[in-house]
Design brief:
The chain has a single domain, classed as TIM Barrel. It has 10 helices and 8 strands. It has helices at 29-41, 65-76, 109-123, 142-154, 168-181, 216-224, 255-271, 275-284, 299-309, 315-322; strands at 17-19, 46-48, 85-90, 128-133, 158-164, 188-192, 229-233, 290-295. It has an 8-stranded parallel beta barrel. Helix 1 packs parallel to helix 9 (299-309). The radius of gyration is 20 Å and the shape is globular.
């Protein structure tokens, strides 16, 4: 008798990461536990955090609350570690309270190794599934930084590593060094991305990340390099697609946004979905796939985000959504 092996829950998981940035600071522990439980119960796998989260909401101006909360949640849920994948970051923790963005820990090799060990201890885990360079550090030697990340892969401390908020030419230079040395290079990129697009050269003053956007060049890079995953933070613009009390940033004020929002309204109405659900479906249904990182504060938002990434857009609707500029 031949039996079919069960599907790998990781491969079949919805392409949505749960953002844990505010867990343990503005989102209290009981509420964060409920959000994590609800996300995992619904089939979610990836949890995205950082060593610096959320220093701006901490009375002492230090990060670590999110990782520490995740550690307590994992300890309170025996067996759940095998069901989830953890992504965390290094590079943006202030050197001292109030020093960010001018001074942060950066990406020197000794810092990369120290923070990886610190994150393991905080979360009570033996490996990090995906370790991000949170932002570029031009003061650090790029080759040495790549060597440090690759060494962590070789040691089994991390599974993969990638770049966030970094110019694409720097990502490729890091990848070229890794190829030349025969070591593990970056295989993921996390930047801001959503359905509407900012005007060229506009920098959102809510972020100091000059190269924090997914551009057409980044999409082409990922599509041309199999194995490179794209992740998108702030995919729903802090709720501005559906909440009248939230405004889309001035960075997006141009005629193309007006036309795109009009088509988004039409498609959402025809599907009986929210604009946010359609945006998430558009992100994960493209080529390349873009994995959204959802920052949530209620179980209803978890359910809505999962509903969005599980929504399949008919080809005709996707063509309409892609067309207007």
């Amino acid at each position: 008798m031949t039996t079919t092996p069960p599907a790998d829950p990781i491969l079949s998981a919805p392409p949505l990461a749960l953002g844990a940035m505010s867990f343990g600071t503005t989102i209290a522990e009981d509420d964060a536990f409920a959000l994590l439980d609800g996300y995992v119960a619904a089939g979610g796998v990836w949890i995205d955090t950082a060593d610096c989260y959320a220093f701006w909401s901490d009375e002492a101006g230090r990060g670590g609350a999110s990782e520490l909360l995740l550690g307590r949640w994992l300890a309170a849920r025996p067996g759940v570690r095998e069901r989830v994948r953890i992504a965390t970051k290094v590079g943006c923790e202030p050197l001292y309270p109030g020093s960010y963005p001018e001074s942060s820990e950066g990406l020197a090799p000794e810092v990369v190794r120290r923070v990886a060990a610190q994150s393991l201890e905080r979360m009570g885990i033996d490996h990090i599934d995906l370790f991000w360079a949170h932002r570029d550090d031009r003061a650090a030697d790029l080759a040495q930084t790549v060597d440090a990340f690759a060494g962590l892969v070789d040691d089994g401390v991390i599974g993969r590593w990638g770049y966030s908020n970094t110019a694409l030419w720097r990502v490729e230079r890091a990848a070229a060094h890794a190829r030349a040395q025969g070591i593990t290079g970056p295989s993921a990129i996390q930047l801001r991305y959503t359905y509407v697009q900012p005007r060229p050269f506009v920098r959102d003053h809510d972020h100091d990340h000059r190269f924090g956007w997914i551009t057409d060049e980044v999409l082409d890079y990922a599509a041309s390099n199999p194995g490179v995953d794209l992740w998108a933070y702030t995919p729903l613009l802090y709720g501005a697609y559906d909440r009248p009390d939230r405004q889309i940033s001035d960075a997006f004020t141009h005629p193309g946004t007006t036309r795109r929002l009009a088509v988004l309204d039409e498609v959402a109405r025809e599907l009986g979905a929210t604009r946010s659900e359609v945006v998430l479906a558009w992100l994960v249904g493209g080529d390349p796939v873009v994995r959204p990182v959802a920052g949530v504060s209620s179980l209803a938002q978890v359910e809505a985000a999962l509903s969005g990434v599980r929504l399949t857009l008919p080809p005709e609707m996707r063509e309409r959504l892609d067309a207007p500029w």
